[in-house]
Amino acid sequence: MRKSKFHDLNISSATLIFTDLIVLSVVFYFFHKISNASISNNQEVMKYLVITTQYIFFTMPTQLTILAVGLYNEKIRENFNGIIVRLSVAFLLSYLFSLTLSLISSSIYFSSQPIELLYITAFTAIVVTRFIAVSCKYEHMGKRRILLLGHGKRANLISSTMRRATDRVNFEIVGYVKFAGDNVVDDRNIKQINLSVPLEKYIIEENIDEVVIALDERRNNLPSESLFYCKLHDIQITDVIDFIERETGQIAVNHIYPSFILYNKKSSDNWVFNFFKWIFNSFIGLIILSVTWPIIILTIICIKIEDGLRAPVFYTQKRVGLKGKVFSICKFRSMVVDAELSGEQMSGKSDSRITRVGRIIRKYRIDELPQLFNIFIGNMSFVGPRPERPQFTKQFEDSIPFYSHRHNVKPGLTGWAQLKYPYGDGLNDAREKLKFDLYYIKHRSLILDILILIRTSEIVIFGKGR
């Protein structure tokens, strides 16, 4: 059985998306039937056009907000009460969107029944179906049986990168087969398979879905004939590096070769793509600015109240951008005025230099809003690796392999690493975040950018910033 996966989308999350769409469609159908909506134009074509518009403006925003609060991620670590809270936020946002549309055009939601009834009914139905899904352990749908060939340092990458049970909801490692040359790493959680039959026969008899190759030494060790036989029987054969990339959304930096960089076909010099991406970024930036301007004004007032009228509101820093060029970013000041009086240093999780207002605006990423200016002038994108300061960039380039590859794309206001890895402030954290940045650089596309932007809402809404 082959696995189809688009970044974090797989069979379990796709089933959940499809189920929610069916539930929302059924609720909308019955709501429309009982509402007896009167349409001024009696033409059938216009009637169905209005109904279709209503349906799209109900289902699409609702499913996008559910995605935005992280509920299409089967690896989410939330109890059911937490899921209800997130659903409440999603439906509230969708309702506010629909309410705004109804104010703009009364024909979109003109009905004898209050629109609130539609959203309350839909919310209740989704809560019920989500309870059934969680109770039935929907996240295990399509779970694959994995056989690991090798039990050394490369095989241990799976244990080191996927420690939690939630990281392995999509697969079950049946066991490993040890080969000569493996630098054995003790892992009691994986059973050793002592073969008494040919490898291909064991794989077929045990209903193995995928074979992951993780030998430390492949020369004269790789069972090519057995693997060819398995391939003919539609059993997936995957290298451990590709397996980790697919399951975790990161690149194993210490185990890739320079060819990974050299043969990367995506280029940052396509001016047509770059132009349309700038248009896209500017359009999204204008929307965000039109929504957040009251927050911007309130932030300025709060900073002035805390630190005095003469205290600066903004703070500029030099950062390294595309092709290593240094540029200046502007942020709301979240630290005391003389924060770097004794020299430049990275900010920590419990940094005493952060002000009270600063802790709030950092938590909800409000301090980043002035960087919209950098997006408008084109030295940043909405999505990309976070730009680092020049002095720290030099340190990381000297210590972390392939770190400079981050500069092959424009830095971003948010990114894949911000979604997948918690806030970090040191060399080890920079190394871990690079794994996700390299994944983004390899797979970057407009669709992935949109996915990251939508899912960034979860960080902002639930205060998962720094």
Automatic annotation (TrEMBL):
The chain crosses the membrane at residues 12-31, 51-72, 84-111, 117-136, 275-301. GO terms for molecular function: phosphotransferase activity, for other substituted phosphate groups. Keywords: Membrane, Transferase, Transmembrane, Transmembrane helix. The keyword Glycoprotein does not apply. Residues 277-461 form the Bacterial sugar transferase domain. One of its GO terms (cellular component) is membrane. The keyword Transmembrane helix applies. It is a multi-pass membrane protein. InterPro entries: Bact_transf, EPS_sugar_tfrase, Sugar_tfrase_EpsB_2. It is found in: Membrane. Belongs to the bacterial sugar transferase family. NCBIfam families: EPS_sugtrans, EpsB_2. This is Sugar transferase. It comes from Photobacterium lutimaris. The lineage of its organism: Bacteria, Pseudomonadati, Pseudomonadota, Gammaproteobacteria, Vibrionales.
